[in-house]
Amino acid sequence: MSKGKQRQPVSRDNNAVDRRNFLKGAAVGAAALATKPPVVDAQQSDNPRPSALPPSQAELTSIVGPSTKQAGYHFVENPTSDFMVDVIKSLNLDYITTNPGSSFDGLHESLINYGGNKSPELLTCLHEESAVAMAHGYAKIEGKPMMALLHGTVGLMHGSMAIYNAYADRVPVYIMAANHYDPAGGVNAYHSAQDLGALVRDFVKWDDETLSVGRFAQSAVRAYKIGMTPPMGPTLVVIDHKMQGEPIDGKSMPRVPRLTMAAPPQGDANAVREAARMLVEAESPLISAQRYARTPEGIDLLVELAELLQTPVTGSERVNFPWRHPLYGRGGFGYEPDVILALEVNDMYNQARAAQRTGARTISISSVDLFHGSNIHDYGRYAEVDLSIAADAQATLPALIEEVRLLLTDGRRRELKARGEIIAAEHALDHEQNRIDAAYGWNATPVSLARLCAELWGQVKHDDWSLVSWQNFISQWPGRLWNVEKHYHYIGGQGAAGIGYNAPASVGAALANKKHGRLSINIQTDGDLNYAPGVLWTAVHHKIPLLTVMHNNRAYHAEVMFVQRQCAERKRGSDRAHIGTTLRDPNINYAKMAETYGMYGEGPIEDPNDLGPALQRALAHVRAGEPALVDVVTQPR
Amino acid sequence: MKNISVVLPLAVIGFFLSLSASWAQELEGDVESGRKLYSAYSCYACHGYTGETARVRLNPLLFTLPDFIDYLRDPPEMPGGFGMGFSMPAYAGPDVSEQDLADVYAYIRSLPSTSLDLEDIPLLNEE
Predict the structure, then answer these.
(1) With an 8 Å Cβ cutoff, are B40 and A575 in contact?
(2) CATH superfamily of the A269-433 domain
(3) Which is the most buried residue in A19, A202, A429, A517, by most CB within 10 A?
């Protein structure tokens, strides 16, 4: 990708081209110099006079018109991009992640000079996928978007995988991509598109191309509002390169539009009443929550509902409910749900199918029913639910709680209390079993993941900690051993299972945690880090405190298992599943990788007894405000 | 007739089972070869390097060698497994000999335990 600054004043540009042609002609015709007297006339201005000497000013003027010197340097006052910064500032964005690009050099300059590089502040990213994924992680902690500023076709394509993850995860990421709408001048042609947004339109919630300043102002504000209205998602504003540099005066400058957020949609009152009736009458209801809690209040509301109903709550995609709460889980051994309340469960197919087999009924409250793209099948197969409420689940919960309260008699409350005690006892057994399981392979080399998580927990549990990485590649050990109860204790994973998310999203989440003084922890899979490890530099450069502990199993481990099973089904080559799946020979040294990017690094650690002290040393750096990495060679899962 | 048609295949299966069992009983596993195969066959990937760290533990291995071979030749079908590829593959192809499986068996049996009792791990006993 070219980082060349393409934008130059039009008059200078034209003259430069003519002068180059002139000199080329001069070189070719040098041999004829002696025989032809210097004659300058109108015809020769198209067919330059052969000469090895530089042309005189008079000659130049006669050939190419008035000198550039007379036109002077092209200065711009009040560039449109200053006004664009005013609009951006009105959105209260704290940061902009970016990898620099010539298509937004004007806006870049306005952000750092006119905008003072504050609110928003530019964060230098080494890959657009990192830029977008950082914003993804940031939003899940902070509850508001960060902007990712991308360069033309190339930057948007680089960022597209991360945009898709955010889309599938229903997370608002504010993307601005700059287009050289005019494909003039060499490399710009490659960075120019007729409809730039088309490249990612299947997986943004909304996009617009803004070729006038008025349109920019409106669309920039609208993009924020649409992105933050449930179901949330990434939105894209495309800006033109040329427009950024055009002067704008007081008269042509539009107002900065006022941002008014939309209240999230609540469920239909009758449908909510019916849901309450089904839940209160159920013998063994279950609440299944996926991308439900948008804010910490969402957790409190769900606790209130579950305690009223004495109902187990399952789901670990993010923190919807405290994981040590006695009602957390599926109700324990033998608990067969007869009514399932699904809160923002994206794909209900499996739950609805299973319910049909056992005669259970399903209720879905989901804002995803209000918005579907067409091309991407992230919604799964069609699910036959019994009661479907198209609404934001968190916004609907207060009404549902109220209806449940109205229906609960004292007698029913007593019955439910007895049910809750059984569920609580089962929850306690699960917790005990997790600790027993953690003791297996405690002294194993390479290090067991249970040991890794227990060692970490021992050192961070008195901090205000935040696990910013996905736990499904580490056998959910944090969830099984740690006291996960606040929204920032765990923020889930990629969304669309696109690997390469974890490292940058962790850095973005850690940045959001920084101002709250939280200790951010990333248990980082090796395969994921290698997509774009440059984000380690970004963490160092911008002083983002984050402890990264490698789960280094030296493979794309899930694929080892998948390929091994294919070998099994085809009954051949059972000893070859490592080909194309493992990351050995040579082993990658992540401590050195960290050091290369300027980060404190330790490892590789294979002996579990070395782990505790190494974590302690690394944590000292993180508590002092910097990122650090410990490479741990681990059991596969 | 009905009875015979059921009994006959069972008897045939039983014959082959006892046959494989009697062969297997005579196999002497080679630990060093088993160590390599445990890795090459990806056993480590789903059961851990010491057979103790994943959901399905192989250490200590309670199977007899014939039962072990039968299980690996034809493990129970588990559609989807535990998710993300985690279900037991068969080792039934002609490239995997009974001797190979006996070697793997010997290797797993040779593995020391790296597990501790829960009470002996302070980290797991503090809240």
Answers:
(1) yes
(2) TPP-binding domain (3.40.50.1220)
(3) A19
d(CA A205, CA A370): 12
Architecture of domain A80-245: 3-Layer(aba) Sandwich (3.40)
> Coil, strand, or helix at residue A137?
helix
List CB contacts (< 8 A) between A613 and chain B.
none
The CATH number of A439-633 is which of 3.30.110.70, 3.40.50.970, 3.30.9.10, 3.40.50.150? 3.40.50.970
- Asked whether the beta carbons of residue B48 and residue A562 sit closer than 8 angstroms, the reply is no
Residue ranges per domain, chain A?
80-245, 269-433, 439-633
Task: Provide ipTM, 2 decimals.
Answer: 0.84
Strands (DSSP E) found in A361-421? 361-366, 387-390
pLDDT tens digit sequence for A430-488: 999 999 999 999 999 999 999 999 999 999 999 999 999 999 999 999 999 999 999 99
- d(Cα A448, Cα A180) in Å, to the nearest integer? 52
Which pTM was predicted?
0.88
8 Å CB contact of B54 and A635: yes
> What's the one-letter identity of residue A632?
V
Q: How far is A407 from chain B (nearest CA, A)?
A: 39
CA–CA separation, A236 and A470 (whole Å): 26
pLDDT at A70: 58
Residue A362: phi and psi, rounded to 5, are -120, 140
**Range in A67-76, A244-253, A473-482 the model is least confident about:** A67-76
Contact list in A for residue B52 (CB cut-off 8 A) is 440-441, 444, 448
The token duo for A342 is 């699904």
Q: Chain B within 8 Å of A476 (Cβ-Cβ)?
A: no
